[in-house]
Hints:
By secondary structure, the chain is mainly beta. It is about 10% helix and about 60% strand. The strands form 6 sheets. It has a 22-stranded antiparallel beta barrel. A 5-stranded mixed beta sheet has the order 3-9-10-7-8. A 4-stranded mixed beta sheet has the order 27-28-32-31.
Amino acid sequence: xxRQDGGTRLGIGAALAVLWALTAxxxxxxxxxxxxxxxxxxxxxxxxxxxxxxxxxxxxxxxGGVGVVTAREIEETAPVSVTDAMERIPxxxxxxxxxxxxxxxxxxxxxxxxxxxxxxxxxxxxTDINGRxxxxxxxxxxxxxxLKGPVSxxxxxxxxxxxxxxxxxxxxxxxxAAWSGELALGGSTNPGGPDTYGNLSYGGxxxxxxxxxxxxxxxxxxxxxxxxxxxxxFEDGFGKAAAAYKxxxxxxxxxxxxxxVGSEIGVPGTGSAPxxxxxxxxxxxxxxxxxxxKHSLRPExxxxxxxxxxAYWQLIERNQRIDNFTxxxxxxxxxxxxxxxxxxxxxxxxxxxxxxxxxxxDAWNWHMTSNRRRLQNNGVLVTDSPTPxxxxxxxxxxxxxxWTFVPDxxxxxxxxxxxxxxxxxxxxTVASGSRRDTNWNAHxxxxxxxxxxxxxxxxxxxxxxxxxxxxxxxxxxxxxGVTEKGDPNLKSERSLYFxxxxxxxxxxxxxxxxxxxxxxxxxxxxxxxxxxxYVMDNVGRARIRGLxxxxxWDFYEGFTAYGNVAYARGTNDSKxxxxxxxxxxxxxxxxxxxxxxxxxxxxxxxxxxxxxxxxSGVAHSxxxxxxxARAGYGFTLGxxxxxxxxxxxxxxxxxxxxxxxxxxGIELMEPGLNAYATWxxxx
Length: 683
C-alpha cells in the first residue's frame, strides 16, 4: 500500500506541475485574453469573501483555503441540499446521510469539526444522525462561504475542519421606492417531487421589508440499477420575514425570523455506526426557528469603519423514529431532543493606516434537553434519557490584523481566547457534573503580490475543538447487546495547520493551487473496550495532507472551460491506519457557453478515483464518473424577467456509491439519472 500511495503522490505532483505550466502559458498568451472578448470579461469580478477576515476581501488575497457558491450557481444546478452545492468546491465532499441533509467533509474533517452558521448565527445540534444542513432551503440562499480549515480567528470551538456560513436572501435600500420579487416553480424526477419558492420585497431610502417561503415534497430516490433507495424521502416547508430601518446614513437595524419544518425525512442505509442495526431511521419532524437582530454603524471620517452588534435565538427540535427492527427486544424507538441557542457577537473593523483591524466579542449558550421512548416487543413502554440535559456556554474574544507593511506584502495575524463551561444533569447512568475549558486559536498568514495578477499566500494556524455533548455523556444501545458510552473526561482536540497557496486572477483566466497539512492531537473517536462496550476516547494524533487545483478559462467569447481536482490522505497515527472520512482523489471538469440571446448551456463530468487505502473493516470503493448537462433561456415577457432552466444529472444512469457514505457496513448507492426543470420569474 505504501508504494502505491507514494506512486499516486508522484503522479499527482507531476499532474500539478503540468497544470501550472499550462496556467503560465495561458496567462502569458495575450491573444487568448483578447479572444475572450468584452462579454466574457464584463461579468467576471474577483471572488470576494466576508467570513474569513470579517470584512470583504479578495479570496486570492486571503491566506488559507476559501470557497464560494453563489445564488446563480444554485439556480442553475438545482441542488436538493446545500451540501450538493458545496461539493462543487474543491476539497469539499458530501457524506451522504440522506438526500435532504447530508453532511459535508472538508479536507477530511466533518460533523463537529466544521462550524455551521446561518447568517452568522451558530447552528448547534448533535450530528450522530444527519439533519443540520437540511435546515435551510437552497432557493433562499444568496451566498455560501466555506473556509477550508482553521483559517480565521473569528470562530471558536469546532473550526479545526473549517467553517460554513450560509447567507440568505434579504431586501435592499433604493433611492426610489420599489417592489421586487421572485417566483420559482420546479421539480425533479429522482428524487421525484415538486419544488416551490417565492419572495417579495419592498425597499425605500430608509427601510425595506422582505418575506420568502417555499415547500418541497419528494419521494424515494432510485439508483442506476433502477432499484429504490429505500427510506430516502423528505418533505419540508419554510418561511422567513425580515426588515431593516436606516436611522441615518451608516446606521442600520435589521431583524429577521426564519422557520423551517421538515417531516418524514428518511435516512437510507439507516445512518452511521451509533444507530441500531436492522432498522429504519426517520426524522419524523425536524424544525428550526431563528430570530436575529443586529445593528451596524459605518461612521464617515473615522478610523472605525464598521461596528456591528448582533444577537440571536435559535431552536432546533428533532423528533426521530427508529422502527422496522428485524431483531432485538424493541418494536420502535423514538428519541427526541431540543437544541436551544442564545448567542451574540460584537464585531468592529478599524483602519489604522496600513493596518485593518477586526476585533470583537462572541458568546453563545447551547441548552440541550432529550428523552427517548421505547416500545418493547412485550408491549411495555419505557422512557429514559440516553443523554443528560446539558448546557454549554462559550465566551470568546478575538482580533485579526491585516498589515500591509511594504507594498505587495500583507501580514495577517489573528488570535482568539475562549472559556467553555459545560454542565449536565444526572440520569440513571450519568452523574451530574460540570467542566470548564480554556482554549485558544491563533494564526499567522502572509500574502505576496508576486506580479500583476499573481499572488502567493501562506498560513500557519492552531485551533481546537471541545468534545461535544454526545461524546461526553451519551449512553446509547447499538443493538445486539452492544453499548456506546461517552467519557466526561475527554480532552479537547487541538489542531496544527499549514497551507500554501498560489493564485492567478486575470480577466480571462483564473487558477488557484493549495497544498496543506492538518495534524490533530487528542483525536476523539469511539474505541472498543470489550465485545459489548465502546467508549469515546482521545486516541492520539491524526494527520491529513493534500493538495487542490481549480481553474476557469474564458477561452473564446461566451465560452468558459472550468475544472478542479482534490487529493487528500489521512492517517490515524494511534492505529497506523487511514482515517475513515477522507475522500478519494476526485474532481470536476466542464464547459459552458453564455449567449447574448439569453441562452446558455453547460456540460460537465464529476468523478472520483477508486479508494483502496481504507481502515480495517471498511470496504474499498470503485472509481466512478457521472456526466451532467443543463441549459437555460432568459427572456422578458410582460415586463417580467423569466428564465427556464432544465438539466439532467447522471445522464448515463451510472450505478455507483460514495465512499464517504455513512451507512453501516453496506454500499449505499447514489441516485441514478435525474431530470429537473425550473421556471423562474423575477421583477
